[in-house]
Amino acid sequence: MDLGLHSKLVLVTGSTAGIGLGTAEMLAREGACVIVNGRTRARVDAAVERLKAVIPRCSVHGVAADVGTAAGCNKVIEAFTDVDVLVNNMGIFEPKPFGEITDAQWLRFFEANVLSGVRLARHYVNGMRARNWGRIVFVSSESGLQIPAEMIHYGVTKTAQIAVARGLAETLAGTQVTVNTVLPGPTASEGVSGFVGELGAIIRQGPSHHRARVLHYGASVLAHPAVRHDRGSRSAHCVHVQRAGIRDDRLGSACRRRRRSRDRLNSGRQAAHWRPVMARGDCASTRAVRRETPAVADFPACRPRA
């Protein structure tokens, strides 16, 4: 597939692993000159070498900088004063009860997840407008629409990204510069794997029935046919986990889409499968698709407690 990106200079932030690295690889295969970014020189160099190993003739550069800070963004801008495509992928997340999130943590998440993209887009959009061509992509999350109860601060920043992208797109009406937001669902990346492990450690400290329900959740999701490895994705090479109808109050990310159907689940009716679907075209979004599924009795985690 020719996306018209040959020889275009593309910056992908947070691209030493996960969705960012998959995106960088896809863009490199399209013939783009890719800039890999990460916080440490070692990880950046490793990602660059990996891309060159799988795509021998690719053009890949690296810049080590923490774009979650103003100093880090300035370092990237000094190294590459202009780009054709900006992919704001870098982001942080962690589970924390709402009452325990301090002001400092709120500010840290906002600066890393929102201001990183704002600072870079504010600089690079000037050159794009002057050339009358450019692409800016914000990698948000479905958490921007379905705020996760276990990390509200993260969800708020993902919503803010959507708002920034929409507002910036309005200012570029009539030009050949586009701004879009991608809302991925749960992805088996390096960061998410660590996140799931952290949740598991928390649950292991609780009663045995919580441990059993977490194990059932992991087995049912990973073994379910809805888990697919998408090699042909236009956005990134990644694993899309399409959640089944499972509810657990200790795992907000696993039951966000089930809350509206809680009464139906408890009454013993059939559950519904919901999966994120990427829309075609320049704009990417998430919509819910209902499919027939086994009865609730087939999902022990969905059964109401006695």
Structural summary, described in words:
The chain is of the alpha/beta class. It is 41% helix and 14% strand. Helix 2 (41-54) links the parallel strand 2 and strand 3. It starts with 8 loop residues before the first strand and ends in a 19-residue tail after the last strand. The relative contact order is 0.10.
Features:
306 residues; alpha/beta; 6-stranded parallel β-sheet; disordered C terminus
What gross morphology would you assign?
A: globular
What level of helicity do the residues show? 40-55%
β-strand number:
10
Q: Sketch the major β-sheet.
A: 6 strands, parallel
Strand content: 5-15%
Averaging pLDDT over every residue, what do you get? 75
Kindly report the oligomeric state of this protein.
single chain
Distance N to C terminus: 55 Å
Regions with little confidence, pLDDT below 50 for 5+ residues: 208-256, 269-306
Give the strand order of the largest sheet, numbering strands 1, 2, ... along the chain.
3-2-1-4-5-6
Class derived from helix and strand content: alpha/beta
Q: Figure out the total of helices.
A: 9
Order of helices and strands: EHEHEHEHEHEHHEEHHEE
Radius of gyration: 20 Å
